[in-house]
């Protein structure tokens, strides 16, 4: 998997002169959507097939500020996946390879009417794609291990 | 009608040290929603009855910057309403009565499936509320006339 | 301390029909700023005296979705404060008293040039205000204990 | 000049199921920053040399909704430039070449302390780059003329 690249926008800065911390949550989503596309099962397909995957928990550790014009590289990896829950990690680095933020999001899978979706039964192709990404997400993994 | 009051948030500032210009679009929406609530026909009721009212045009003139902690007073008034289109004006002032921004938004009315809604026929109560606000929106009007 | 009240805006919803999860980070900031104002030491005063207080870590547990028009009540309390770090908790409830989100943010204190601020020495009034809030933040506390 | 490409993000949609209208203001800024980079005088250089260029007026005509996953192509062109003011146009199209939004922003040039910057005297290289873009911005121009 190729990491997701994102340049910090002017409107994402605040009067402290740095990226406002809320924007990293947007980047996580962008990187996650890109990751699902790369793994061959875009998020839009999941919703088209009647399943939504809301965030039920998230955390961010802000390590180093970044600001307008900085290019951030976001390595995404699936930390765990049970069919009922999925935990995704995001390793954000600046151009010098310094860690800017480390984040995690946890997701469930629901049907349109709010019931728990039976993903293992109803979306086997998605499950296989996730599991494949977990066994060899070299890109994200090696960057984090360094 | 009472004008809408809004305190500028830290996350709405940018590295120039002032409110980023995109946020005023959010304030317009907040003030418009508040206005519809005051006039007795909340926007949520419109959607509950199957009509959405998308913005088809907008403009802003930024007169004076504002920043974190400033209290902005937004006078809202309906400039025109034809049943097919509605134009709303927003007069934003700071605590010293200085004009911060003057903005305008134009709206249509659509059914859920994207057809033009026949608002005069199907939503007479909304039309009456709008027309009433146009004949005596003293609050917003007098502030702008000063 | 009075809890902070916030009505969900239309622009804060997403195509899932609920509040997008990134917006809760904004609400945390709004509630924190309101809390500091209530405790008698506004955040703007901190910055005016040369200290910024960036978020270094945050976490959210999303318990129940909310959407456009919902009124959210946010109880704020200081969980810990050492002079070098401060942890704040946010308990967000809907009108029925159901927990919508529980969140936490951790802050450091820096001088304008990025050095660690010596808050206990240089901002004793702030420290006293925080400690006072910790000993009797009845409002937020009792709500969470229920 | 190459037009700017932007994929609509999930967090940019609202409960109407389409891109919320405020986000187009962000895209205008992204496209403008990209345009200045392409013309050889990045906006960051302008600020580094002590000049800021706030938006003093903007307008958007929303022609056709777009939503999550849509790729939007934004042609940017300088409509007028006097040294004191600059007007920029944005022509946003979807993948089928349909116009999604047409927008315009007007900018002034200020020094850090809020005075009008004498751009023709102090930033001749920027002025030349702008004028060059106006004489042959084939990319954006031809797209709009079609």
List keywords for this structure.
146 residues, 32% strand, disordered C terminus, homotetramer, Thiol Ester Dehydrase, Chain A, alpha+beta, five-stranded antiparallel sheet
- CATH evolutionary superfamily of chain A: Hotdog Thioesterase
Q: Summarize the helix and strand pattern of chain A as letters.
A: EHHEEEEEEHHH
Low-pLDDT parts of chain A are 138-146
> What oligomeric state is this?
homotetramer
Give the overall form of chain A. elongated
Query: What is the count of DSSP helices of chain A, taking H or I runs of 4+ residues?
Result: 5
**How many domains would you count in the coordinates of chain A?**
1
Helical percentage of chain A: 25-40%
CATH architecture of chain A: Roll
Question: Numbering strands along the chain, what is their spatial order in the largest sheet of chain A?
Answer: 1-4-5-6-3
Instruction: Please compute the radius of gyration of chain A using only Cα atoms.
Output: 16 Å
SS-based class of chain A: alpha+beta
Q: How would a crystallographer describe the biggest sheet of chain A?
A: 5 strands, antiparallel
What is the level 1 CATH name of chain A? Answer: Alpha Beta
Query: Would you count the extended β strands of chain A for me?
Result: 7
Which strand-content bin applies to the residues of chain A? 25-35%
Quote the distance from N terminus to C terminus of chain A.
17 Å
Rounded mean pLDDT score of chain A: 93
Q: What do we call the CATH topology of chain A? A: Thiol Ester Dehydrase, Chain A
Name the biggest interface: A-C, 18 and 18 residues
